[in-house]
Amino acid sequence: MQNTKRRAVRTSAPFSPAPLSRVSLHALGTSMLSLLLVLPAVAATKVDVPVSALITPAPCTVSLTGMTSGSTLDLGSLSSDSLSSAGAVLGTKSFNVSLTQCGGDIGSTVPTITVTGNSVGAGVTGGDFLFRDAGSSTAQNVGFIFRFNDTTVAWADSDPKKKNLKPGSVINLTPNTEGAVLPGTWKTTPIPVAVAVSTGGGASGLVAGDLQAGVTFTFDYQ
């Protein structure tokens, strides 16, 4: 670029005034053309933009039917005499868990119901399968048992866990360790859940009184 400019100045100096402008214009034009020809090409650059998204099916609406009042299931007044033996079950009732307004094709996601609540605990044999709220219950060493996808419920020492629920139970299309499984008709047919009062695997220390428990069924895709 500097060499071209110096050459144009030298060319115009020896000529008379009349042809000076023509020669100078020609020289300048040539110089400008040379500048355009020798300009280096601009190097191309690029940047990659990763884009991702997770499309999830619409979650189901969970509703309960078959309750005695609103969202409460009242088993009524029960005699403690009928709970004097280990594995006793009394006052069985059932309600339905309905899953509606679910998404269409669920893809690879797994429909899952998670059960939460409070249990009697280790003080009673099998107490982790007995639901009881300590703050609102005066009855002792007794609780509610829940059996998923069934209208009857039982407690047997040989198999006390079969399909019975406990706090933290996870239910999906594969049977869990207790045998509870989400039926193939989960999107179209209400799922029955049986409830009863039981002393679990033992009957000692039973104290009569009010028995209360709150159980939550949460549906999501995992």
Automatic annotation (TrEMBL):
PANTHER family: FIMBRIAL SUBUNIT ELFA-RELATED, PROTEIN FIMG. Residues 1-44 form the signal peptide. The keyword Signal applies. Residues 56-222 form the Fimbrial-type adhesion domain. This is Fimbrial-type adhesion domain-containing protein. Keywords: Signal. GO terms for biological process: cell adhesion involved in single-species biofilm formation. Coiled coil: none annotated. It comes from the Eukaryota.
